[in-house]
Design brief:
The chain is an alpha+beta fold. Helix content is 36%, strand content 22%. Helix 4 packs across helix 5 (124-139), helix 10 crosses helix 11 (223-230) and helix 12 (261-281) packs antiparallel against helix 13. The two termini are 25 Å apart. The protein contains 13 helices and twelve strands. The longest helix has 21 residues, at 261-281.
Length: 360
């Protein structure tokens, strides 16, 4: 017997081109112009692009060289993460005036469970409108929002009327909304999975819904059940105010590609120092060290090693990263190195929440 799906009132708030919007807010001369945060026309990777730049096909994670080709008038500005964190805290403070059930996904997006909220407002749609209005008036940038019965549908909906818009998917509309949605707009279906689904004739949610659980598990492994459920609007993950970190990482992109392991070791020592600072700050340790290597052709390789004990010390991090570095020869010059630590000593505390059905 299938368990009843709890109807929650979930809002997913997503800031519009956050880094670029903050830069345009702080420097009015940049408003209305194609802008890329990070990278340069000669090097680096775009961290964020304004909507003016996106019209030319400039996207995050694109090389600065390619971005400049797409948009010759593109303006590059260096990222200011301290400023972005400052703005993010102001936005978070607004969220918490409505509910304590706020789960940040990054500096620029978060889930809010407003099923029971501090304002006593029964309408999640009106709460989202009010929050977006306050962010614009009190912070100075715009946000979009998705509102629905669970986190998955809310996140998909938040992308529907971007920028500076919102969409509510009511309980009775969920399955129809998902059936009509292109499969590439499903959160969690990336480029590779999308192409595999196209191969099986799955182009929309309706196509996905015709596939049995057995078929999806056979061809998509553990993700099969997830796909089977989400297209039916089943996603019972709760909004978790204190998300437990699964990994802690530090990495660095170099001004010039590195070809010598000796120079790489020097860089890894600094990266290990930064990672140690972050681990000490949050009193975290872990067992699995992963070395990330991005080559000059933008391909990425990872090498991991799991230790029999928890570590957070720079010396042990560096020693393990060194072993991984010399595990095999480099296939090309290196533009980025990173060290991450997972299999952490953090504990996940599970709680059971029982919620009743009510008007949305």
């Amino acid at each position: 017997m299938t368990e009843p799906i709890p109807n929650r009132k979930i809002i997913h708030v997503d800031m519009d081109a956050f880094y670029a919007s903050v830069e345009q807010m702080d420097n009015p001369e940049l408003k209305g112009k194609p802008l890329a945060v990070g990278g340069s026309e000669n090097r680096g990777v775009v961290a964020a692009a304004s909507y003016e730049a996106r019209k030319f096909g400039v996207r995050s994670a694109m090389s600065g060289i390619q971005a400049k080709r797409n948009c010759p008038d593109l303006i590059f500005v260096p990222p200011r993460f301290d400023r972005y964190k400052e703005i993010s805290k102001k936005i978070s403070a607004i969220f918490h005036e409505y509910t304590d059930l706020v789960e940040p996904l990054s500096l620029d997006e978060a889930y809010l469970d407003v099923t029971q909220n501090k304002k006593g407002n029964p309408s999640a749609t009106l709460i989202a409108q009010e929050i977006r209005k306050r962010i614009f008036e009190e912070v100075g940038i715009t946000a979009s929002a998705g509102i629905s019965v669970n986190k998955f549908v809310a996140k998909v909906a938040s992308d529907y009327n971007k920028p500076n818009g919102q969409k509510t998917v009511y309980p009775e509309e969920v399955e129809g909304f998902l059936e009509n949605l292109e499969i590439k707009r499903f959160y969690g279906i990336g480029k590779v999975t999308k192409e595999r689904m196209y191969h099986f004739g799955i182009f929309t949610g309706k196509d996905l819904k015709t596939k049995s659980q057995e078929f999806l598990e056979e061809h998509f492994g553990k993700s099969g059940l997830y796909f089977y459920n989400i297209v039916r609007g089943i996603h019972n993950s709760q909004v978790k105010p204190n998300r437990i970190a699964k990994s802690v990482a530090a990495e660095h992109t170099f001004n010039e590609n590195l070809t010598s392991e000796i120079f790489m070791m020097e860089k890894l020592e600094r990266i290990a120092e930064e990672l140690e600072r972050r681990l000490k700050k949050y009193k975290i340790s872990g067992k699995t060290v992963t070395l990330k290597i991005k080559y000059s052709d933008f391909t990425t390789q990872t090498r991991s090693k799991t230790l029999p004990y928890f570590i957070s010390d720079k010396g042990l991090l560096l020693e393990t990263a060194k072993d991984l570095l010399f595990q095999e020869r480099m296939k090309d010059s290196v533009r980025l190195l990173g060290i991450s630590l997972n299999n952490l000593n953090t504990e996940v505390k599970k709680t059971v929440v029982v919620q009743l059905r009510f008007e949305f």
